[in-house]
């Protein structure tokens, strides 16, 4: 009996800590962001490319506009996911699309690169639970 109580307490503590590690804005069940183009493994010649961003079960809204079940895209280039309870950084590895863009022209140097999308709320903080895409790899020649 005491073991069950301890396991329940540990489980509750784990769930509480998981909630703390995500932003305050809820995302709906089934929300999903994904990279439409380029596909995983695509080889790009010249370095300039369009990235097309998709979103299911949520809407796209500009930064600063607090509407339920909406957010805006952030493209992560050659980096891992940032902390989920903080504002997404804004630098050459974390591109913000706060005007609500769903495609963007970027330029990358030759080599192997990773791309991943992370949806941010009106304050650039990931939702709870976070909505992010699969990380893909492309090659620029």
TrEMBL record:
Keywords: Signal
Keyword Signal set for record: yes
Keyword match Signal: yes
Highest taxon of the lineage: Bacteria
Leader sequence segment: 1-22
Residue stretches making up the DUF4399 domain: 51-141
Pfam families: DUF4399
Protein name: DUF4399 domain-containing protein
Organism per entry: Paraburkholderia phymatum (strain DSM 17167 / CIP 108236 / LMG 21445 / STM815)
